[in-house]
Amino acid sequence: MKYALSINGKQLQAEVDPDTPLLWVLRDTLNLKGTKFGCGMSQCGACTVHLDGKPIRSCVTPISAIGNKSITTIEGISADAVGQKVQQAWKILDVPQCGYCQAGQIMAAVSLLKQFPQPTDQQIDSGMSRNLCRCATYHRIRAAIHQAADAVKEG
Ligand code: FES
Ligand code: FES
């Protein structure tokens, strides 16, 4: 079936089965490989993208469930003011280790900051708790979220 998709502000098309997970469409059909496959079972957060601004797990979201909603992936998050500050903080604090989980971490961090513009450590820990990092970069993730929050506040 043919699907018209709004991704990172562009109109794209994909011809796939209705039950194809969005992650497969992004990576295999549309060559947007920034979003990663981790567990494939909604457990790790590596595949997090935004659907109308809300974080979803693209590994368990069938393409047929997207409808007219807008998708944002890591490739498009710098167009968002908060996304830009988060990416800058990630670079300044050198957050990634192997990097594999980090696109999902950044997408989750942007959502967290939209909900809590000045999050406490506890809000960060609970908001980010479902995004796993095998390299245990959790300390730097937390510091980068605080730094991004301050940068957004300062404008
Ligand atoms: S790959 Fe989707 S949550 Fe792990
Ligand atoms: S940086 Fe390696 S899994 Fe998170």
UniProtKB/TrEMBL annotation:
<dbReference type="InterPro" id="IPR036010">
    <property type="entry name" value="2Fe-2S_ferredoxin-like_sf"/>
</dbReference>
<protein>
    <submittedName>
        <fullName>(2Fe-2S)-binding protein</fullName>
    </submittedName>
</protein>
<keyword id="KW-0408">Iron</keyword>
<dbReference type="InterPro" id="IPR002888">
    <property type="entry name" value="2Fe-2S-bd"/>
</dbReference>
<dbReference type="InterPro" id="IPR012675">
    <property type="entry name" value="Beta-grasp_dom_sf"/>
</dbReference>
<dbReference type="InterPro" id="IPR001041">
    <property type="entry name" value="2Fe-2S_ferredoxin-type"/>
</dbReference>
<keyword id="KW-0411">Iron-sulfur</keyword>
<keyword id="KW-0830">Ubiquinone</keyword>
<keyword id="KW-0479">Metal-binding</keyword>
<dbReference type="Pfam" id="PF01799">
    <property type="entry name" value="Fer2_2"/>
</dbReference>
<dbReference type="InterPro" id="IPR036884">
    <property type="entry name" value="2Fe-2S-bd_dom_sf"/>
</dbReference>
<feature type="domain" description="2Fe-2S ferredoxin-type">
    <location>
        <begin position="1"/>
        <end position="77"/>
    </location>
</feature>
<dbReference type="InterPro" id="IPR051452">
    <property type="entry name" value="Diverse_Oxidoreductases"/>
</dbReference>
<keyword id="KW-0001">2Fe-2S</keyword>
<dbReference type="Pfam" id="PF00111">
    <property type="entry name" value="Fer2"/>
</dbReference>
